[in-house]
């Protein structure tokens, strides 16, 4: 059934009639949108980092019984050559096998600006790592030589510094040696970006170890992972186990599920607090206009049209807050790196994050406008007019 609605300008004019109240409400809702986007951006950044770290054709071989803890894995150095020679489906090109022996672990990193060393992640690699970790790109500087390291894009954040604090030519100290930074690398958002890479033989000498933590091997297209698994089970003397790289990072995602659940709970609490604040403000605004709303009914506007106009006001206010909150977040928070137990993650404000954050903001505007509209329009017209 057709109803005669109030002009669109009526809702806009009502918002401008009380500029201070409107501005404060808009600022509060904008803050809620910013906080919501930051928390959702953190969740998206964590999920994207773990998803980008694994490749379906890559297998990880490490010590039997270590579960998913690669830092404490120790396997014989010769395992790498034996794996490359024994497993046929491993990809090869010009006689070079796509096998990367790696020594990986956490250690205290000393940096001149920091009074105390910070915990960092160090990976000793050979040049073959670039065949397996194909998402890695050298952004600046050169491949590390003896006594040198190259640092990931988020390694400085992991160490408690600003994201751009480390440059080629700077020095780091760990395992009793001083290392010169030769270059900076990125890996498409993967977890490697919070690590420090150096030559495998250099790290083995510094750590006084002759073993490896893991072997990463890329299978040729159509290659069967079962061949790698069979090699590990046949060579009982090496005490190895194998897992697909994607399964390894999927396991890490499951381990971090409680953190993601806690972050979503934080989003609900922020949205709830914003909803109550918006509800309180709209109640105050509508209750002060009861005579005006009763007058509109006496001149022919039905209650549904007046309720629609009040909801219009709430949605307009919420839409403005969403635009301001999103603009502020994109300008000052997008790409910001946060320190995390497994390394560091960048806040990801992609389309889905913005859509979800703004959707929550609009829901707050809607939820804040409906109850006061119902409360005001239930009052009898005569009683409302006597309130003048």
Automatic annotation (TrEMBL):
Subcellular location: Cell membrane
Domain ABC3 transporter permease C-terminal: start-end pairs: 265-380
Transmembrane segments: 20-43, 262-283, 314-333, 354-374
Pfam families linked to this entry: FtsX (PF02687), MacB_PCD (PF12704)
InterPro entries: ABC-4/HrtB_transporter, ABC3_permease_C, MacB_PCD
Membrane protein topology class: Multi-pass membrane protein
Assigned GO CC terms: plasma membrane
Keyword Heme: no
Lineage, highest ranks first: Bacteria, Pseudomonadati, Planctomycetota, Planctomycetia, Pirellulales
UniProt entry keywords in alphabetical sequence: Cell membrane, Membrane, Transmembrane, Transmembrane helix
Residue stretches making up the MacB-like periplasmic core domain: 22-228
Protein name: ABC transporter permease
Source superkingdom: Bacteria
Record bears the keyword Transmembrane helix: yes
């Amino acid at each position: 059934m057709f109803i005669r609605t109030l002009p669109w300008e009526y809702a806009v004019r009502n918002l401008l009639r009380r500029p201070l109240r409107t501005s404060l409400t808009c600022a509060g809702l904008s803050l809620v949108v910013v906080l919501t986007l930051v928390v959702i951006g953190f969740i998206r950044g964590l999920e994207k980092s773990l998803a980008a770290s694994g490749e379906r054709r890559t297998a990880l071989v490490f010590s039997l019984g270590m579960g998913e803890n690669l830092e404490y894995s120790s396997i014989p150095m010769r395992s790498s050559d034996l794996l490359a020679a024994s497993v046929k489906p491993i990809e090869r090109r010009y006689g070079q096998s796509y096998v990367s022996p790696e020594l990986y672990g956490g250690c205290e990193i000393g940096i001149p600006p920091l009074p105390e060393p910070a915990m960092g992640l160090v990976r000793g690699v050979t040049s073959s790592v670039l065949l397996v970790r194909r998402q890695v790109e050298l952004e600046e500087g050169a491949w590390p030589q003896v006594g040198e390291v190259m640092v990931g894009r988020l390694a400085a954040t992991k160490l408690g510094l600003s994201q751009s604090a480390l440059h080629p030519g700077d020095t780091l100290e760990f395992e009793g040696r001083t290392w010169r930074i030769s270059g900076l690398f990125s890996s498409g958002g993967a977890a490697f970006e919070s690590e420090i890479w150096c030559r495998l033989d250099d790290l083995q000498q510094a750590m006084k170890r002759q073993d490896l933590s893991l072997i990463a091997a890329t299978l040729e297209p159509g290659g069967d992972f079962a061949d790698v698994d069979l090699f590990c089970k046949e060579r009982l003397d090496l005490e190895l186990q194998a897992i697909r790289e994607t399964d390894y990072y999927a396991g890490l995602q499951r381990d971090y599920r409680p953190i993601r659940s806690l972050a979503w709970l934080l989003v609900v609490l922020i949205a709830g607090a914003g909803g109550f604040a918006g509800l309180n403000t709209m109640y105050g605004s509508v209750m002060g206009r009861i005579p005006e709303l009763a007058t509109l009914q006496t001149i022919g506007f039905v209650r549904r049209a007046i309720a629609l106009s009040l909801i219009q006001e709430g949605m307009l206010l919420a839409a403005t807050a969403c635009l301001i909150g999103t603009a502020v977040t994109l300008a000052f928070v997008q790409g910001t790196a946060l320190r995390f137990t497994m390394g560091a993650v960048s806040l990801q404000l992609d389309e889905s994050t913005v859509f979800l954050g703004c959707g929550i903001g609009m829901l707050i505007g809607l939820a804040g406008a409906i109850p006061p509209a119902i409360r005001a329009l239930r009052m009898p017209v005569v009683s409302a007019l006597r309130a003048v």
